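Tutorial handout. Part one gives the primary structure; part two gives the three-dimensional structure as tokens.
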Amino acid sequence: MKVTEVDLSKFNNSWYKPARKIKIIVWYFVNIFIFKTMIPFPSSVKSIILRAFGAEVGSGVVIKPNVSIKYPWFLRIGDHCWIGEEVWIDNLAQVTIGNNVCLSQGAYLLTGSHDYKKEAFDLTLGKIVLESGVWIGAKATVCPSVICKSHSVLSAGSVATKDLEEFGVYQGNPAAWKRERKISE
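Part two.
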């Protein structure tokens, strides 16, 4: 018999175990009270906390208020990166951020989704890589398994569903190449 409908009662992601429950619970409260708040805790303090939870964080990283990070142990941030207000790093899988990367306000890095072709709507995961010099614009979304190559730009409100080539400026939903990024002194 061919299945023609989704049956969410069959959903089962018990295979997904990102960490011990106690670690997840402790991080949940740290995330709420230190990161996902408008209180402007210093970025240096936030970096220390992220490292304590297993993240790799470079020097000179700026983390603005009201940022949400799902699991810091699946996060690598290079040197001199900016993470703007209301950025959501929904990293059920690894997110790697190179040096000098800017995540503008409300940017969304999404590593999890669902297989809409499966009756049980199975959980799917895909890592995200933002190479050095990348700029993810305000309210832009990077989808699972996307690599934003060196110095690519994803314009405000755009959605990257496929890799962005180096020094390309992308816009739209889905994001399409618009022009070459030229950087001057």
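Part three, for discussion. The chain has one domain: 20-177. The domain at 20-177 is CATH 2.160.10.10 (UDP N-Acetylglucosamine Acyltransferase; domain 1).
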